[in-house]
Amino acid sequence: MRLTIVALAVSLLATGCGQAVEGTPVASPDDERKAGNKAYETALGVMRQYVKDAKDFRGSLFFYAAVNERKSGSDVEIARKGDPPALVSRRKSKTPPGFDYDVYQPAGDPLEYVRLGPKYVPQIVPTQWASMPAVPYSGFPCAITGIQTLCKIMDALDTTTEAAPPGLGRAAVRLNDGATEVRTEITLKSFVDNSVITIPADVVALIEPDMMGRLIPVKIVVNADGTLRKAEVRGEVAGRGGKVQVEVGYEARGPAEASDFPPLPAPAEVTALPDKTARDEFWTKMANAR
């Protein structure tokens, strides 16, 4: 796709002293920097508004992290609709495969339901589904699956801005469909510290300290109508004895529909977990199984 540099703040300087010369004006580095910063602040505002309005939406997430030979990755589809809300997330594991699961909380139901993939049954529970007391929704948007990832990306951007690492840049390009793609970076340290992807402490310990200050590319795409299309972090940092690769992003896919939410399973298909203790043990087993 052909990209055109966004330099909307730059005007033709063909008036005044001297003779006008035909050709394409070239934006000065200062003008490009100002245009990039302005587009960046606009994109952050669009992300914040999306989070604030996260009541009826559908989105797609992807996660992948590799530290040396330790790898993990998933794709997640999410949807939320109604008040009180129905919320569903469908997680498909890429690395390693087979560790898939869905989490569904019907609107107004005190229980949430988890459908387990083939690597979890019957090791975790003997049935394909488990039910458990739902965690009460706090009303805090950043606690919602998917929206939480956007919040963590924004936190990492803010942390990087505060640190002001050398070489940090911001630029924007206009896509052919009128959308604006904002390009910037975050440090690996801000990525890890803000748990953009949660990396276990023993894996973080494998990262060489000198690598933490390195920059990872970030893209935010704002539609021509000023709404969020996607935000993503993709990059690789190489050290003396290993490397870190991270890929994470969220794509907005419009409002949720009734067809996004599954029917409740039959009672015979469900293992009922009675309380918070049982629920916590269940999720600990799920984590350990991977």
Automatic annotation (TrEMBL):
The signal sequence is: 1-20
Out of the domains of life, which is the source? Bacteria
Which PROSITE patterns would you find in this protein's record? PROKAR_LIPOPROTEIN (PS51257)
What UniProt keywords apply to this chain's record, in alphabetical order? Answer: Signal
What is the protein's given name? Answer: Lipoprotein
Q: Which organism is it from?
A: Kibdelosporangium persicum
Tell me the organism's taxonomic lineage. Answer: Bacteria, Bacillati, Actinomycetota, Actinomycetes, Pseudonocardiales
